[in-house]
Give the backbone structure.
Amino acid sequence: MKDYFPQIFDYLLNIEGLYSDDPDDPGSETKYGISKASFPDEDIANLTKARAEYLYRKNYWERYRCNLIQSPLLAAEVFVAVVNVNGAKVIKYLQTACNNLGAGLKVDGLIGPATLDFINNFRHSKAIVAAFEGEMYKHYCNQGKKKYISGWLIRNDGDFEV
């Protein structure tokens, strides 16, 4: 299976931007989307792109098994979502989306063999993407933080292309 991570990482950086220290952001100081709240031992202000790439691959891409999702569009959607929202919660949204398409998965927040089997063998991967985006849209709209809604919805628009 092709490794889409480098392309998806570049896509993410276009969304996340560079350095920010917004006092209203619970992530606190952020660069390339890597937050001080999530990585308290990192020197965020001096974080390099290479270090950010390593952190993303290890802590999000591989941890949430995006590397095993065959659809690059779905892998990108899940990856961007787990970066922005609690990973287990995102996987539950993915499993719920799959169940809305008839999967019958246990909604446990883990991408195990059954979840991977469904998402990699379902004939209409774009339907999974659309259902997943719907679940994420509901999540973002229920956050009550209007200041950030536009940025969250940009992350959820599914315009990644291989």
In short: The helical segments are 5-16, 49-62, 72-84, 87-100, 113-121, 125-141, 146-155. The mean pLDDT is 90. The beta strands are 30-31, 34-35.
